[in-house]
Design goal:
Layout lengths: L7 H15 L7 H14 L12 H5 L5 H16 L6 H13 L5 H26 L2
Length: 133
Amino acid sequence: MFADRLTSEQRQAVFDLAVLLAHADHDVSDEEQQYLKNFSDAFGIEYDLDKSEINIDDTLTAFSSKQSKMILLQELVKLSYKDGHFGQEEQENVFMIAQKVGLNDPELLIRIEKWVREGFNWVYEGEQMLEVN
């Protein structure tokens, strides 16, 4: 997990922004909840799904390096895929965050989305192979 490379402040910010993103379509799926629970457990973050008081601009100040910004976007796209598709509202929110952190390069966003999608496909194919007797 690339989030290992983030500071604890950045991990908390990823979690907070992921919660906001999960609420974007007004339906936090079981898969999204499990992702958030796993993330909070992995990094000792309080599992709290009410982030309505979060100021996005203030939260984004935790990300100063290009690497940390890319990891943030990768984690948000990963969450977005948890319910099976990268929906329009989720895409718009990820793109808005990318612009706010200065990574509004469409080619880079496409590469990050492809990276996440291929990772999901890789895991799925592995699970399918293991189920074959």
